[in-house]
What we know:
The chain has two domains: 5-39 and 226-336 and 345-405, Rossmann fold; 47-218, Glucose-6-phosphate isomerase like protein, domain 1 (Rossmann fold, 3-Layer(aba) Sandwich), CATH 3.40.50.10490. It has 16 helices and ten strands. It has helices at 24-35, 50-53, 58-71, 85-94, 116-126, 143-160, 162-167, 179-187, 207-215, 220-233, 244-257, 273-287, 309-314, 353-370, 385-405, 417-426, and strands at 5-7, 74-78, 106-110, 131-137, 169-173, 190-193, 262-267, 295-300, 319-326, 375-380. Strand 2, helix 4 (85-94) and strand 3 form a beta-alpha-beta unit. The chain is globular, with a radius of gyration of 23 Å.
Amino acid sequence: MSKINVDLEFASDFLPKQALQLWATDISLANSMLTKKWGKGHDFLGWLNLPEKSIQQLPDILSIARDFSGELDAVVIIGIGGSYLGARAAIDSLTSPLGIHRPGPEILYAGHHLVGKYYIDLLEYLKDKRWGIVVVSKSGTTTEPAIAFRILKNALENQVGQAAASRRIIAITDEKKGALRKLSTQLGYKTFIIPDDVGGRYSVLSPVGLVPIAIAGFSVGAMLEGAREMMKASENDMSLATDPVARYAAARNAFYNQGKRIEILCSFHPELHYIAEWWKQLFGESEGKEGKGIFPAVAEYTTDLHSMGQYMQEGPRKLFETILIPKEAQADLQIPEDPQDLDGLNFLAGQELSYVNEAACNGTALAHLAGGVPVIRILFDRIDENNLGSLFYFFEKSCAISGYQLNVNPFDQPGVELYKNNMFRLLKKPGY
Ligand code: PA5
């Protein structure tokens, strides 16, 4: 029995009886392409066994995390896209929704945009703190994180001197290539390797995600265990009746073929915001090519029911919705009784907020289904390291299978280069 359940009850009107079975051959073919490594992009399948491979690096990761947590008040994680979103997704989900109550040092982010005011404020915030840097870039040359690293490295060196700064910097990059590798060797940074065969958006279970998550004080061992359970569960079976990867990939492509070209990933938990952002990158960069692909969009309920709810209910019927549902609340609060009941809420007195949230979730799924939007529900036990590990692996494998169903290469991103080339030309970078 898998830890993740893909429930299609609220989508059944759009998936007539036996319809999923039509996809059985496709799914099993896509799975063979992955496991036998003969599909498009087969040089980038290292993520498939990261849950087992990364365990070997745990002692080193945990020892670094202990040193950083013991010595530093704050750590800035520098990276963009796949070199940033996985770590942020896990850390933000496991931190309380208000951003307080987290074990390790404070975690801040940089290198994911180009706004000066952000860096001015960040440097001001850090100036009296003991802080360090984890810089993540596979190529070692991506502009946004490279600029951020130059700014922050400079500030740290000015604050504590070059030798001490070098001890507070960890670089996660390619084993041999790139400017960051060169700099790390020269200045003696502690480094971790991003394997050649693992692309950015499939790298959360490598040091790219694990080092920052461990520094933030969360159990990366439990996360890898959750991922390993999902890996084992979806290794051979891929039955459309029981396998969550097969069910999700098949349902998405069934909707796509019905003209539903937009998938909204939503949850009723704001702490899952960056899980949705990570998912958006994973599916957007993997599938959107050759004029094909489902457009991945995200919404946060109930907040967005008061902004996008109208469109979801009555706009063009080109959408389907996927709701992420943790079955247990992390913590709960009872609604108090009020003797006067002027707000008329006493009918809820004594009930917990999760009870109201669940009613909102079920009410929304029913409403959207009635409005012509099929709803996939992805249920898992709770938001913790183990379940997040399973979710990461589940989505990565679903994305790869779904990409193969579309007959695209889910592991490259050639379309991202054009903006960079234009930007470099406008900036007069030598050679452009
Ligand atoms: O998924 C991807 O490959 C991209 O999003 C990259 O992670 C992103 O562009 C950052 O690249 P790099 O790690 O080389 O700095």
